[in-house]
Sequence to fold (208 residues):
Amino acid sequence: MRVLKLDAHAPLEPQLRAAAAEIAAGGVVGFPTETFYGLAADPRSEQAVARLFALKGREASQPIGLIAADLAQVEQVVDLPARARRLAHAFWPGPLTLVLPARVTLVAAVRSERGLVGVRVSSHPVARALAAAFGHPITATSANRSGEPPAETAEVVARLLPDLPVLVDGGPAPGGAPSTVVEVGDGGITLLRPGAVPWERVLESLDA
Fold:
């Protein structure tokens, strides 16, 4: 395992080039998010996503959320209707995942059975910088073995996933509640998972 210890006082993207290169080569990278540590892989690569599932010991039966660097990157993987765009402007960067129809460039294992994918712009600077350095949204599933608690530190990730090729040590992740997951459809919005952003705030942002 190669551990990349980040210098908080230096620009992030140059420090993350090796991690982005690992993702581009079909590998998996551990990295901090605004909640817990996650696992980044290329969601367009069958091989990369298969490696991700193997590391977690998880079957490819549940869709995987994505993290993007910015709104432009989000639009690489989904179309943003007006309602979704209002939520994006209200809560991004931040822990609100929007579930929308995925573009066909994403592998089937990332999408739900209905062809949907969840995506957010993280409020964690390392997560955004990693997606920016890679040039495309990255997977954001938790950095742990399936069924185990999520990891808040790089040290815990290294212990839980010793076969992880690259680990970005950006210091402790904040922990707390996971991202709130909301499906945005033609008929309205649906809360799929409560989380860090209260559902009432989501509804209020659309009424404002």
Summary: The helical segments are 12-15, 17-24, 46-56, 71-77, 82-91, 125-134, 154-160, 199-207.
